[in-house]
Amino acid sequence: MTRDEIDGGRYEIEGGVPLRGEVRVSGAKNAVTKLMAATLLTEDPCTVHNVPRNLGDVSINEQVMHSLGTEITWTEDNVVSLRTAEITNTVVPLELGAKNRLAVLTAGPLLHRVGRAVIPAPGGDRIGPRPIDYHIAGLQRMGAIVEDHDGLYYFHTAGLKGATIDLPFPSVMATETLIIAASLARGVTVIRNAAIEPEIMDLIKFLQKMGAIIEQRVDRKIVIEGVQRLHGAEHRALSDRNEAVSLAVAAYLTRGDVRLIGADQSTLLTFLNTLYRVGLDFNVEDDAIRFFGSDQPPRSIALETDVHPGFMTDWQQPFAVLLTQARGMSVIHETIFNDRFGYTYELNRMGADTGLYAKCLGELGCRFREQDFPHSCIIRGPTPLHAADLVMPDIRGGASYLLAALCAEGTSRVWGIEHIERGYDNLYVKLQRLGAHIERAEDDAPQL
Ligand code: EPU
Question: Which domains does the chain show, CATH number per domain?
Fold first, then answer.
């Protein structure tokens, strides 16, 4: 990232303070934003609860939908009502569409309602190339004509129809794009090799409330019987398992004791199992999970990221920081994105001992085998961390810097915080509530 690309604003974090107390986990970014897009399928009003209003991606979504004709009203702090009585524009503005990857979700609804859409090629995190070819190929199978010029996708159709679609990989958002588009398509759509993340199940629940007929079958098959009309619905989004993981790791790294209200065990099973494997303990309560550190360093582990129900790719960054404090050599094999370890260079600058390898250091069949992608990481620990000046590369890499800074000796300064503020709901305020010494300062760019 160049100096000019860095927005003003930084966090200053004094490390070494044990986090204690309780905070509520917000609604899931990766569910809420999809629920909002799905409301475009009906002209009726819809209401979504548990929406993190301060989250950058929610605000980008609001602006995209507003530009298409959606009236958006916040009835309470975390409750939003959306109504798209009429589509007034079919072009997602370039400056909004390029900020994240969400605009492609609007293609299906726009094609149903007005037969055309123009959507910018997506932006978002720098974690390796993130094409949308699966989304496009699936929509084409359903009868969309798609052309691609100068970074814009032009879609049109005389009517979407059901199709059988084989996804080359269980892509989360391609599955969501196609489920949304198939809900109103003529006939039956079968998505094979679909992703089945909890956020996708939340989208399916919401669409069912709107009148859609969607079945999850065995072996990653999702079958959608298109209906003629969807109506308004009300839904409470599930809680954010990525936020829960980041805060849980912060508790362990600072040897604190943190209760996360609303943390949902059913979406965190693999993470919780992994905690047991490295020797860490937690208590699952009725509507909360308590995470408490110990005086003993965690044990090392060999981990592989995978599609759900595997260990999430968005958890490897916080976990890597945790493993810098584990005794022995740990291995992480990233099988979802081919370039998601860039943040480890900065961890090394803070005193960590990590190394990247192109070889698959794991057992899972991986699309990056025999290619030159640094997608395996070895971490030796425990290594004390010291403060540094850092610039966040993306949402989860940024979270790893905050976590490293919370357990480092001294005061770190972190820029590029628009990434974390796009993906986490007031994380620094929650950390402050737990006793962390973290301040947000408006600031010019760093002298790096
Ligand atoms: N892929 C393609 N072509 C496509 C779509 C995906 O090649 O058309 C590849 C990707 O390049 C990647 C793999 O398939 O190698 C899986 O990507 P996926 O499509 O599942 O990712 P995504 O839907 O773009 C969502 C989350 C990510 C999360 C991943 C994996 C949202 C908005 N984003 O991305 O979250 O890491 O699934 O679970 O839901 C984050 O929240 O910080 C974040 C990056």
Answer: 3-26+239-442 (3.65.10.10), 29-236 (3.65.10.10)
